[in-house]
Design goal:
This is GTP cyclohydrolase 1. 38% of the residues lie in helices and 26% in strands. The protein is of the alpha+beta class. A five-stranded mixed sheet has the order 5-2-3-6-7, sandwiched between helices. A hairpin with a 5-residue loop joins strand 2 and strand 3.
Amino acid sequence: MIDRERIEKAVKEILIAIGEDPDREGLKETPKRVAKMYEEVLSGYSDNPENHLVLFTEKYDEMIIVKDIPIYSMCEHHMLPFFGRAHVAYIPNDNKVTGLSKIARIVDVYAKRLQLQERMTEQIANAIMEKLRAKGVMVVIEAQHLCMIMRGVKKTGSYTVTSAVKGVMRNEPTRMEALFLIKGRQ
């Protein structure tokens, strides 16, 4: 559970530390707004991703892909946003599938935490692989990081692409099929 009051106090201290007046009209409510924002964008800590992966039986054993899932997360190194899209492919095992929206919910749960893109990619793949007992999983995430765009090297337009490949998706033909279906229309 996020401690709003503690965040408000910390934000007020940051405002003072940078030379601002936290009692100035435009800043009076800022600590409350920031605390509420953190509660929202970091809500993944209070959610168990596995609760979203409900299994049901469907006679289907081919690849399922949910692509272009928007992601918004916070870099744990600088607490700045990174954003982009996730693509998730899996091959069901024993005719056990999950709802398509459940895949997007898993992505959201992990994105709504302080994150590294590399870790988040692995977490999503592992959760789907383990909970669905899938034959294979591939997760590809493409994101822009404000820590690289607005500070440091300041490389506007740069993207970071990460992937996690599990099970039969590691086989070259299956991997290539998934990548083609994910990127094919571009």
